[in-house]
Design a protein that fits this description.
heterodimer, A: mainly alpha, ABC transporter involved in vitamin B12 uptake, BtuC, 76% helix, 3% strand, B: 300 residues, mainly alpha, two-stranded antiparallel sheet, 12 helices, 2 strands, 73% helix
């Protein structure tokens, strides 16, 4: 029982981080039909910027904001520079975003060195609390709570607000949305920037749990691709459920059969792509 | 003398990567299926050979064959599934499959050598006194013969009716289907052919290095191969051959030269895609296009 509760909490923590990260990736995919392999690099950049800001100021909130702003600004510049190329063929998108990821990742390594860094949790959230008889770090519980709250907030925005409807319209049918007078480019631009900022924010938020280190960018990126496929390409609600699912599979897989930990994550993706290409929670989606 | 050996060894390796890239042209360039998991078949060939030699004590020539057979068998199981998807779907399914294999190899414990891979893979002897495969030049001739044979086969295949039909599969699958061609079977076949070229190169690469490790299964290797195809002009097996070799030499050169090599490599990705989306073969027409832009603005 203790093992079970502990792994569930671990899975939810990973799932929360994954959800922040993957939400940007999947919505950008929906809008641009582009798999942004540089999304992980923005996560890494945000994390390191947050680390430095915390070293200097000692303030976690400030670190989080700085990580988000730097990653968001980088995303904005990338989008402005490469937009026309982004919308070309799948090959070009993949190679271009991967190239950008290499460049950013290596710049980060250049500036901060190869040694892993840690970000410490804010003083208020240090310590642990009792949940079903086990002591669990308060900060992780905070991450889970934040994911639930921001997930609910996003859901209300996505399903109930007019702006949310505009973004959904652009995801569902770009051309029709444009014909209705929506500036699809502006929506894409805004969403891409926000998504990048959230990736950077996740880098800092994840710092106290998984640390900040070179290589983390591609680790989380691959998990987020799984979330995207399982949740349904471009679906935000799907991303939420899929993040939790992937987080739980990851936690239990790593704890129970570490030899198969990658198998348990990636094999379902193959099955889902074949049986239900629209994802477990997504609706049909033509390319 | 040492320097000469270094260059000969580099050429052997470059020839192997070049051949994989040329084989990938069929799948990525002609049929238009973007694979981020093709390196897996390269790696699996190597792992099969290495395990046959070190774990089963097989003789090296037999191990080479069994490495290829293992990789091709895996490809033959996976190809019919992957061929059902296209574009981003194909990209993600090949990526996921690659990660499954990579995960099994790195977490496989003793049997696969885990993160450390497998060392002590013996080079075979040719059985001919004048041809010593344990020596740089001798092995180079082996790779040269292999590359020549594969390139001949690939160029014959791509100008054959089946080879020509691949472009049609990419451009208009529905039309192909209505003309009575079995689109799914052709895609599956191309996938397997392309994977077996990678498998053969992978086995040779393993006995060349005497080692095989998880880096041979890394998805970034697949991306590098895809870049080689794009740089080579997507349709041209010789273009991919040259750029595959070139990219490998450049990478080795940069690794020895600067710690910043991933950045340079990344910049190459970006520059190729932005400036030469049709590859190096389009260089002439791109220059013309840029000239026209300036002419329009009255700059020239």
């Amino acid at each position: 029982m203790r093992f079970f509760v502990f792994q569930v909490l671990n899975g939810l923590t990973t799932g929360s981080l994954l959800f922040y990260f993957a939400s940007g990736l999947t919505v950008v995919f929906g809008l641009m039909r582009m798999l942004n392999l540089a999304h992980g690099a923005l996560f890494l950049l945000g994390g390191y910027v947050g680390y430095s800001v915390q070293m200097v100021t000692g303030n976690f909130a400030l670190a989080t904001a700085a990580g988000a702003v730097v990653a968001g600004a980088t995303g904005l510049v990338l989008q402005k520079t490469f937009l026309t190329t982004f919308l070309r063929s799948t090959f070009n998108q993949v190679l271009l975003t991967l190239g950008i990821a290499f460049v950013i990742g290596n710049c980060v390594q250049w500036i901060w060195g190869s040694a892993p860094k840690t970000i410490s949790a804010p003083a208020v959230l240090k310590g642990a609390i009792d949940i079903f008889g086990i002591r669990y770090p308060l900060y992780r519980v905070f991450l889970i709570g934040l994911a639930v709250i921001s997930g609910a907030g996003l859901w209300i925005f996505w399903e109930r607000s007019k702006l949310g409807a505009v973004v959904r319209a652009c995801v569902d049918d770009r051309d029709m949305a444009a014909a209705m007078g929506i500036s699809v480019d502006r929506v894409t631009f805004t969403v891409f920037s926000i998504g990048s900022a959230v990736a950077g924010l996740t880098g800092v938020l994840g710092g106290p749990v998984i640390g900040v280190s070179i290589g983390l960018d591609f680790d989380i990126l691959l998990l987020a691709v799984v979330v995207m496929v399982v949740g349904g390409l471009g679906s935000l609600g799907g991303a939420f459920l899929a993040s939790i699912l992937v987080g739980l599979i990851d936690a239990f897989g790593k704890a129970s059969f570490p030899e198969l930990s990658y198998f348990t994550i990636f094999a379902p993706v193959i099955v889902i792509l074949l049986v239900r290409p629209s994802g477990l929670f997504g609706k049909a989606f033509d390319e | 003398m040492v320097l000469r050996e270094y260059w000969i060894n580099l050429c052997s390796q470059a020839l192997l990567y070049a051949t994989v890239a040329a084989g990938l042209v069929l799948l990525v360039g002609k049929t238009g299926l973007p694979s981020l998991g093709h390196g897996v078949f390269f790696g699996l060939g190597g792992y099969g050979t290495a395990m046959a030699i070190t774990r089963l004590g097989m003789n090296p020539w037999g191990a080479l064959v069994s490495g290829v057979l293992l990789s091709v068998a895996v490809a033959a199981c996976f190809a019919p599934l992957a061929a059902r998807t296209k574009n981003i779907g194909f990209l993600t399914i090949t990526l996921a499959f690659g990660q499954v294999i990579w995960g099994l190899a790195t977490r496989g414990g003793e049997f696969t050598g885990g993160e450390n891979g497998i060392t002590g893979v013996m080079r075979p002897s040719s059985g001919l006194g004048f041809w010593d495969l344990r020596e740089a030049t001798g092995f180079y001739y082996l790779t040269l013969a292999f590359a020549a044979m594969i390139m001949l086969a690939l160029s014959r295949f791509s100008s054959s009716p089946v080879g020509l039909s691949l472009v049609a599969l990419r451009d208009s699958p529905s039309r192909m289907m209505s003309m009575g061609y079995n689109v799914h079977m052709r895609k599956t076949m191309v996938f397997i052919i392309s994977a077996s070229v990678a498998a053969m190169s992978g086995t040779l690469s393993a006995i060349y290095n005497g080692y095989v490790g998880p880096s041979a299964l890394d998805w970034r290797l697949s991306a590098q191969l895809m870049l080689a195809v794009v740089v080579g002009g997507a349709h041209s097996i010789w273009g991919a051959f040259l750029s595959g070799a070139g990219l490998h030499v450049l990478k080795i050169y940069l690794t020895g030269f600067t710690e910043r090599w991933p950045m340079v490599l990344g910049l190459i990705y970006v520059i190729v895609v932005v400036i030469l989306p049709e590859g190096l073969t389009s260089f002439g027409s791109q220059v013309k296009r840029i000239k026209f832009v300036f002419l329009d603005r009255g700059c020239l």
